[in-house]
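Reopening this one. Same input as before:
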Amino acid sequence: GIEMKASCVYIPGFIDREEIRGMLEYLAGLSPAIPFHIMGYIPIPGTPWQRPMDDQMREMVEFAKGYLETVTFSHLTVEDARDYTRRDDRFRVVQVL
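Same output, byte for byte:
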């Protein structure tokens, strides 16, 4: 009777297929209907990891769909993360007065 959602950050070479597989197997064991969201890593200065390439992100989403029914993802660039209005008008601020 508890509504569950889960998410993870995909960082190629750090939080990769094997780590995410463990999460997916656990969640699918509870219920394959649990919604799962994969966030592509956004690089932080001074860290060695890179943002997933588009094909890597697509492959990870397809991989997750092998375990769970509902898989969504976000794959922002550094510029998108700094200014959400670049990709989604809902974040645009409009002065009306």
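So the earlier flakiness isn't reproducible anymore. For the record, The CA atoms of residues 13 and 49 lie 7 Å apart.
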